[in-house]
Amino acid sequence: MTKEQFISLLRTPSTINLNMVRGLEEITERFPYFQNAHLLLAKQYQGHQNIRYESYLRKAAAYASDRRVLYDLIKLEPQEVIHLEPEVETVMEEVR
């Protein structure tokens, strides 16, 4: 996950993309005390209706310095969810 993707996800957490979930999982493994990554990962699990959502929500609550932020992110977010297609690198063929 790039810095720009993470910032975009902070601005619109209802954006759902499987690549973003994998990127957030890597970030939380490398930086376990990075609370924003844990909060966003819980939100992504909720959006994907992931089986790990309930247990991860408890973990995100433990890392959250203010649980109201987590509550607002999970409960008060608009119902509109933006699904993005997975990013696929395309190779441009040279036309002769």
Spatial strand order of the main sheet: 1-2
**What gyration radius follows from the Cα positions, in whole Å?**
15 Å
Could you say which structural class the secondary elements and strand pairing correspond to? Answer: mainly alpha
Overall spatial form: globular
What is the end-to-end distance? Answer: 35 Å
The sequence of SSEs as H and E is: HEHHHHE
Number of helices: 5
Instruction: Please mark out the parts with pLDDT under 50 across 5 or more consecutive residues, or reply none.
Output: none
Structure summary, number of beta strands:
2
Largest sheet: 2 strands, parallel
Task: Give the strand content.
Answer: under 5%
Fraction of residues in helix: 55-70%
pLDDT average, as an integer? 78
Defining traits:
two-stranded parallel ribbon; 58% helix; globular; 5 helices; 96 residues; mainly alpha
Written account of the structure:
With 96 residues, this protein is mainly alpha-helical. 58% of the residues lie in helices and 4% in strands. It is built from 5 helices and 2 strands. The protein has helices spanning 3-11, 18-30, 35-48, 53-63, 67-75, and strands at residues 15-16, 82-83. It has a two-stranded parallel ribbon with strand order 1-2. The protein is globular, with a radius of gyration of 15 Å. The chain starts with a helix and ends in a 13-residue tail after the last strand. The mean pLDDT is 78.
